Amino acid sequence: MAEERTMIDVKRLRAYRIERVQAELVAAGIGAILLFDPINIRYATDTSNMQVWCTHNAVRYCFIPTEGPVTLFEFHGCDHLAEGFDTLQEVRSAIGWFYFGAGSRVQEKAKQWAAEIADLVRAHGGCNRRLAVDKCEPEGIAALQAEGVEIFNGQEVTELARRIKSPEEIKAMRIAIAVNDEGFRRM
Question: Which range, 72-76, 99-103, 180-184, has the best average confidence (pLDDT)?
């Protein structure tokens, strides 16, 4: 099993996944995607942090343009978890604008957050102000729209990207299945 693991070209696997997301964006005529779903962030960048907690609280997100730098917005104090990932060109601190983190300042924080995202859309989308978003609270959608960003379904983009598996992904799946089978055998 350990020998088989070394056969996976992780760099190639990661590059393929970013390319798949970007290809689906291009096919849909969308300039970029903003990911909040930890599973989608993991697929696109191979990074993870508090996946269960992040499913409930929008404390980290990732901006992926069709061309240009991939930017991960990480939970404060956790930037070090994204070091060394060739899928990322920039790591910034996330703005916690969701209710649990912002309380009565949700509107204010959402506006600040949307301005930063809209700046990325303008910088890397050219004239394309179309942004796919996989999961987002209504205040965030409204704040992005107020910035002139047109919102599209990001779940569709990521599901379509995942539908075609690379040889490296198939190897990884086989290893995961073998580990699972061995676990059951030992139990």
Answer: 180-184
